[in-house]
Amino acid sequence: MSTAKGPGGPGGPDTAVREALARRPRRFLFSLWPLLCWAHLLSGTLFGLGVLLALTVLVSLGAILSVLGVGLLLLVCTALLGVPVAAVERHRLRLVAPVAIADPYERPQDGTAWHRLRHRLTQRATWRELGYAALLAIVFAGAGLGVLVLLVLSAILVSVPVLVWALAPEAVMVIPGHAIPSPWAAVPFTLVGLAGVALSAYAAGWLTWAQVRIAWLLLSPRQDETSRHVVELTRSRARLADAFEAERRRIERDLHDGAQQQLVALTMTLGLAEFELGDAHPEAAALIGRGRAEARRALDQLRDLVRGIHPQVLTDHGLAAAVAEIALRTPLEVTVGIDLPNRLPGPVETTAYFTVAEALANATKHSGAGRIEISGRLDRDRLVLVVTDDGMGGADPSKGTGLSGLADRLAILRGRLTVASPVGGPTRVRVEVPCSA
Amino acid sequence: MLRVVLAEDAVLLRAGLAELLHRGGHVVVEAVGDGTGLARAVDDHRPDVVITDVRMPPGFRDEGLRAALELRARHRSLPVLVLSQYVATAYATQLLSGGGPGDGGLGYLLKDRVGEVAEFMDAVRRVAGGQTVIDPEVVRVLLAQQTAEKPLSRLTPREREVLTLMAEGLNNQSIARRLTVTEASVVKHSGNIFMKLDVDPTEGNRRVLAVLAHLRGEEA
Fold first, then answer.
1. Within this chain, do residues B162 and B95 fall inside the same structural domain, yes or no?
2. ipTM of this complex prediction, to 2 decimal places
3. Distance CA B116, CA B123 (A)
4. From the candidates B94, B113, B116, which should be mutated to test the interface with A, based on the most A CB atoms within 10 A?
5. Which residue of B has its CA nearest to A321?
6. Could you tell me the pTM of the whole model?
7. Which of A16, A91, A281, A406 is 20 to 30 A from A203, comparing alpha carbons?
8. What distance in Å separates residue A69's CA from the closest CA in chain B?
9. What number of C-beta contacts closer than 8 Å exist between A and B?
10. Where among B84, B104, B134 does a domain terminate?
């Protein structure tokens, strides 16, 4: 991203022109650069004159009609004129600038046309763009015109000998009253013309450089706009993660209040039926018993599912108890040493818990480990959790979405996940999360 | 006949449990839907046993368990049976810790157990009678974790069976009945178990707690 760099810094869009200008004259003049700069100036001048015309018409009509109210609308349009001009300029400058200039405008998420208009008008970028349009229309169009006139005149001077030869001796006058006697006598004018062309090339180069640099200053995002953008993105990411977490809890609640209760009620009813039948109908009782066993299996599966979504014991007793519980359900020897002085913020607990769960699952499935050690403590304000197994190592966290997904969730909390797994083991998964909100 | 106070927020289950207890010959003196209601009902009725859900309003966390623990702090002899949608050994230890001789019975069962009517009724009676009842699933999870290096591997298969039933809260008499052996041989087995696991021999709730703590890998 080029937007993070300041104007004129290394790698800015004006670097290419500046470097070309710094070459030896021969290498600059005989490169493509003079042509590019002239083309840039020509297009810029024409465009700038067009913008000047539009500005003049809009402002004067707006001023005249402002008594009628319509004029105010025209003045608003004038304020917004910078927006399309800047958009065109960002494209046009690509002719001489290798790095594109980014659009600083922060689009509102939604809203009516009226909201969007108000939003546009409150952005500082909009007013900088208008300023650029005015500069383009007046200063750059004027200067560009001057350089181009110099180029045309110089070109004519260069071609004087040809003109003299083509028309007739004594028919061409450069200085009034002094006719040029022969093509040879016109050679000094050619030399002056060539010097003029060179001067025009350099003038075009420097003017182009100035224009790219000013465009970079006015049309690219400001540092504060960029960082505001980052802050907003970070916040929206955290909001998304919170919403995700709330959704998990809601699903868990719904399952608990709905399907699980219904299934428990079902086993209860079946149990009662079995009880009432007693020994009277052994076959019917056996069928009811089977139905009850099936309902119980469904409940077991539902419980496992809920544990994977958001375990109740984590909510009630916190990280240490929840990790101890999951350690008990791991078919390896797991030592848990988590020593925390108090409960941690909910998102920290949840993310840390699922990271440990994932690490345990990986160790069980892939590592061939026999023992796992989990340690956790609070280092000043940071939770530090380490899961170590004595397996064969060689785990690649970039493979599989499990750990990398958790690394993303940790990143939202400004935490980080490090996996050290040399071939031959041991594998060590380390989680660090700040616990301050 | 036992006089029962029932606390369960789900209407369907509350009605089902009340019916179940009624058919089992017990009287549900009051059925409530939250922890504060439970405390009031216990003060009003002085029941023989309290049956409560772990998760209840307003927070839908472990309000039921907390209410049960507070009740136990005020009425040490009050038998309490806690029902839970999940087994978590943390709940079991929280419930059992702090018990002493002369305390009322305690139970911790998975909700699904109510479907096994005869066993559930037996559990209610045992808790009301001052015994401890721990869900077999809790014990199963704890035992499954034990690996070859732990002292548990030194137990004979029969001692393992006895340990499992001890952890579920059965007293020697019940264990003897369940395994169809004499009570004297159960006493002998349990003595061996305590020696091999290096746990102080105790009785009642404290025995269950000691066994559970040992299985959880903690100092008793």
1. no
2. 0.83
3. 11
4. B116
5. B90
6. 0.62
7. A91
8. 60
9. 98
10. B134
